[in-house]
Amino acid sequence: MQDLLDQVNAVRERIAAAVQRGGHGQAVRLVAVTKNHGPDAVEAIHACGVEDVGENRVQEALDKQAMVTAPVRWHLIGHLQRNKVKALDHFAMLHAVDSSRLADAVHAFGTVRGRAVDVLVQVNVVGEESKGGFALSDVAREAERLAGCSGVRVLGVMTMAPLDASEATLRAVFAGARQAREMLRAAGLEATELSMGMSGDFEVAVEEGATIVRLGTVLFGERH
Ligand SMILES: *Cc1c(COP(=O)(O)O)cnc(C)c1O
């Protein structure tokens, strides 16, 4: 527990230093990624003052939610199947709108619910086959479409950099995400957030303007 608090404090200091270096002056929200960890990890991280947790699989998250009493905000950071959009009742934000078809399904769900669902548009800046998301060249067109979707509130962009990318590649990916956010704004969307940065690259992401970092390993150690 003390170890975890030490980790949280160390990470917060590293984030603050990266904001200084980057010069964007943004506030950064720490989302603790608790996938592959039990409900106890959620309780423990909340006790350390972290109010946001991220899960990448719906069923694992719902199972955990049933056992957690800490009032955390749950972020769905992984792919959502279109037939599972109802699960969005249980999350504060969906980070991974990775296709027009999913956007339409979420919009339809939000419309039925009578409240817009908070989402981020996932962008695949370098076109990695193994990852989902829109190519940068498709974002402007999708933004125009989303501007007509009252069932979603588009809060910004999410991206993942390739593992083991060079610093130059990381900066190019994160700058691409910033560009995508500009395209969303140009279409009239709210788009203030940039969800980018994982354990291996969060300082560079924050230097490049991240407003949300999603951190697992650096807080909890390696996943098993
Ligand atoms: C697992 C995961 C993370 C956290 O990764 P770490 O390297 O452990 O910090 C962040 N974002 C997404 C989408 C993930 O699936």
Q: How would you sum up this structure, described in words?
A:
The protein is of the alpha/beta class. 42% of the residues lie in helices and 18% in strands. It is built from eight helices and eight strands, in the order αβαβαββαβαβαβαβα. It has an eight-stranded parallel beta sheet. The structure holds pyridoxal-5'-phosphate.
| Highest-level CATH class | Alpha Beta
Element order: H for helix, E for strand: HEHEHEEHEHEHEHEH
Largest sheet composition: 8 strands, parallel
Bound molecules: pyridoxal-5'-phosphate
Question: Termini, distance in Å?
Answer: 19 Å
Strand residues, percent: 15-25%
- Strand order within the widest beta sheet: 7-6-5-4-3-2-1-8
Topology, number of strands: 8
Number of helices: 8
Residues in helix, %: 40-55%
Whole-angstrom Rg: 17 Å
The stretches of 5 or more residues where confidence is low (pLDDT under 50) are: none
Per the CATH scheme, the topology name is: TIM Barrel
Oligomer: single chain
By helix and strand content, what is the structural category?
alpha/beta
Q: What's the CATH architecture name?
A: Alpha-Beta Barrel
Name the CATH homologous superfamily: Alanine racemase
Short synopsis of the structure:
The chain has helices at 2-22, 39-47, 58-65, 100-113, 136-146, 167-186, 202-207, 217-220; strands at 29-33, 52-55, 73-76, 93-97, 117-123, 152-159, 193-195, 212-215. The chain is of the alpha/beta class and 224 residues long.
